[in-house]
Specification:
The protein is mainly alpha-helical. It is 75% helix and 0% strand. It is built from ten helices and no strands. Helix 5 packs across helix 10. The chain is elongated, with a radius of gyration of 23 Å. 25% of the residues are buried.
């Protein structure tokens, strides 16, 4: 097995774990359209049993995510280096044109035998790196890391146990807070995150299940657009509902968002 094939296997075997997480994670905003924030909160609580436990978060989410990202980037680098090393020099091209025998002898080393290299400007690459270095980073910091720090600073109550309702474990009620307070600042990162992740997912699934080149940009955009429409409609449903979140949960969550640079624009 070549290095490229091993990296491909790692990227493909880790993808189902991420797809499972994505389906579970996006089921909550889709549930908003069916049963409102109450149903969405129940779906979010069930989803945490998969990806926000000690075992689930480490081995069902973070580990596959790390393997998928590193193997995909490493494969791209390996293919770039292989294509540069296998490309013929001008002198070899001249000598190859002088003789049919030489041309035939160099035929096994032509780029046709190499796997396709997606350019950095391709739809799959732009969606992948945009999600990784921009939208996922913003989402994780503002909805997971910073709220977890805020939970540690909030004094515990002797009468009420709020451990299950910490701002690092928000339900759909606490999600209403940024949507109502910072409307467009919440919409833009959320729409970018959902769009880029779904485009990457649709393109990656076509590569794994279909041909080596996958589906065209138009097919990927259509599939991702339909899926994004089902998810993003919660942006119209949630603001129309009344907020019932506990003030002890919303207050540290608001402080967390105010400290984030994105929400200070």
């Amino acid at each position: 097995m070549t290095v490229s094939s091993i990296l491909t296997m790692l990227a493909h075997t880790s993808a189902p774990f991420l797809s499972t997480f994505l389906v579970i994670h996006l089921s909550a905003p889709i549930a908003v359209n069916i049963g409102g924030s109450r149903l969405a909160s129940s779906v979010m609580l069930l989803g945490r049993e998969y990806y926000q436990t000690t075992f689930g978060e480490r081995y069902l989410l973070l580990l596959p995510f790390t393997i998928h990202v590193t193997s995909s980037i490493a494969k791209w680098v390996v293919l770039i280096l292989a294509s540069n090393s296998s490309s013929p020099s001008p002198s070899s091209e001249l000598s190859a044109s002088d003789s049919d025998t030489t041309a035939l002898s160099e035929e096994p080393f032509t780029p046709k035998s190499c796997a396709r290299i997606h350019k950095l400007t391709s739809l799959l690459s732009v969606s992948a790196y945009g999600a990784l270095f921009l939208f996922i980073a913003i989402h994780v910091v503002t909805h997971r890391l910073s709220p977890a720090e805020a939970d540690a600073l909030v004094p515990s109550s002797s009468d009420i146990n709020l451990e299950a309702f910490g701002c690092s474990k928000p339900d759909s009620e606490s999600v209403k807070t940024p949507i109502k307070t910072w409307s467009w600042l919440s919409w833009m990162p959320y729409m970018g995150l959902v769009g880029s992740v779904l485009v990457r997912t649709a393109g990656g699934a076509s590569i794994i299940q279909g041909t080596s080149e996958g589906a065209g940009n138009r097919q990927i955009a259509v599939v991702a657009g339909v899926a994004a429409l089902l998810v993003l409609t919660d942006l119209w449903v949630l603001p129309s509902e009344l907020a019932f979140a506990l003030s002890s949960v919303v207050r540290p969550y608001q402080v967390t968002l105010r400290n984030a640079r994105v929400y200070r624009m």
